[in-house]
Amino acid sequence: MSRMLDEAREAPQAVARQLREDGERWRAFGARLRQQPPTSLLTIARGSSDHAAHYAAYLVMARLGRLVASMPMSLITLYQSEIRCEGLASFAFSQSGQSPDLVSPTQYFRQCGALTCAFVNVPDSPLGRAAQWLFPLHAGQETSVAATKSFIAQLVAGARLVTAWQDDAALAAGLQRLPQAMERACAADWSPALEVLREADRLFVIGRGLGLPVAMEAALKFKETCGIQAEAFSGAEVQHGPMRLIEEGYPLLVFAPRGPAQAGLVELAQAMRERGARVLLAAPSGIPDANLPLVDSELPELDPVCAIQSFYPMVEALARARGNDPDRPPHLHKVTKTS
């Protein structure tokens, strides 16, 4: 048993705790966004937090039709670029709130009149103090180097952002029932992946749409905890140059939750099996050849949260099966400060 597994299993309670807190502040933030909609939107994040930011950005673009850009590293801290801030809203995602390349841009944007918001697990942190609007993740202390419950809490914060902005009762109700679905997802049997991946040294993780951020997070966790050279691709992108690498026995993990991208991902998984690849297809019950079960949430947009909830216990077990300590990966630290 590891702290990583304990913390992954704590995620449903962490999400329930977050959903009980800050309701008035979220409603006020949503009203602010509706009354004075920003003309440009930017996410600021690194590592796992950047994957959560991708999920939030995709939700905003899909539901609100507003383009969202990801802040390139070092523009403010190293290149000292004078970014135009008229009508800008920046959304920073972080677990510790310590990294200068999140804090400095947030300070700069706020000083220049932009709307700044931070979703952070440590409210009394430099990032928490830098942003105009602060929304704590309420995930509780996380000691394992590999982030689990704090990542999931960031996904939920991104969904709350869209809920508040749209004032969407259906999405709000789906979020309230999400912890129960997460409990079921945590108990899903993903043990077939252990046999396929126990001796793997490389791997593709495939997703698309709202499932792509989960694929990106899974690939990072394979690297961190298992030492596997894992790469994440969209179901469309992998069919270009990366396809050259897929040959007999090549392992793939395909995330195919509900939604418009599902049919194409299931079709891709079948095509890769016919080429001799060892395919792990994570999909809901009823999907042919799915060998890793995905639990449905109230709404398809929230299914990626359940998908990563099922993934974390599996990758923790895989790390231990390969002789690794998932809590203390070599060369890594819980807090990384970069500029």
Summarize the structure.
This protein is an alpha/beta fold and 339 residues long. The chain is built from 13 helices and 10 strands.
Folded structure, characterized:
The protein folds into 2 domains: 3-176, Glucose-6-phosphate isomerase like protein, domain 1 (Rossmann fold, 3-Layer(aba) Sandwich), CATH 3.40.50.10490; 185-321, 3-Layer(aba) Sandwich (Rossmann fold), CATH 3.40.50.10490. The chain is built from 13 helices and 10 strands. It has 339 residues and is of the alpha/beta class. The protein is globular. A 5-stranded parallel sheet has the order 2-1-3-4-5, sandwiched between helices. A 5-stranded parallel sheet has the order 7-6-8-9-10, with helices on both faces. Helix 4 links the parallel strand 1 (40-44) and strand 2. It has helices at residues 3-9, 11-20, 23-35, 47-64, 100-111, 126-130, 149-166, 169-176, 178-186, 192-197, 212-226, 262-274, 303-321; strands at residues 40-44, 68-70, 88-94, 115-120, 133-136, 202-207, 229-234, 251-255, 278-283, 292-293. The chain starts with a helix and ends in an 18-residue tail after the last helix.
